[in-house]
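[READ THE FOLD]
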Amino acid sequence: MSNFKYGDACQSGDDKYVIAQFRSDTSLAWVHDLRSFLNLKELKYKDFHPRRHQVFSNAEMWAKFDKGVQQAEITILDPRAYESVLIDEWLDQRAEPGIDFDQRTLNEEVGLFMLRLSPLSIASHTTFDFYFEQMAFDGRFPPDSDIEFNDFSPADIKRRAGGRLRDATVLAARAHAMLSPSERREMVAICSRASNVPFGTRRALLARMCRIFDIDHPNSVPILNEFSERVSHAAGMRNAASVLRGAHKMVSESDSRNVDHIQAADMAAGWAVDLLMCNRDDYRELAKRFAWVGVNGVVVLG
């Protein structure tokens, strides 16, 4: 299914969570070539990094690698940016560090803040209750349907993801990777007037949310699938499976040893982190080297 994207992630030394993604129809002959060149069973950036000069010394192999990773779409979540906003707000309110808040409080609120500003927020009860009621009224699904969703508040999904700041970071980052800012706006518009939007248009947008990530955070997978179900229903689709071809879930994890696309994503994510460090976190420089770069839900232009 060409709409599927495969992703893997890498965390920088300053806590940025970087996801790289490749479309399923991307040509990845360079992965096999580089794996053979380095005599590795699996391509991992941690193994490539200490031998990168060996690859660089082979002009043909380096060109293949450089051109290959540039096809990646990069999604970055930077918890420290959210942290700075919260601290500034609290200081403006005369809150005192160590008295009114500490690092534990800050971590808790940063996690909630990231989830509240992520695409997951469009699937909250308050957003979708009206859509569900309208669909039942329009007969788009039976009033006695067995649709039943859990609480989808930031606090609840953070708890279900694991409760830690890293859990919230991964969950929010994966959600941003599933819906670009423009796709998010389009999804909200479609859900608000689903009956007036052609079925094919709705289906195509939902299909673009399909993801296969490396095995890194299993707790996020059912939450992201529930998110997909909520969006599917609000868009007037019976369920998420109705937009898939040959897949059972919109989001899943897979062992990177068996998937060249995920190995490519691992390489691209690690390369992106190194480029950020070399360019002092200049996202515009990063955007010049990859197909697409988004940071905290904002597209960066090169």
Notes: Confidence is low (pLDDT under 50) at residues 141-147.
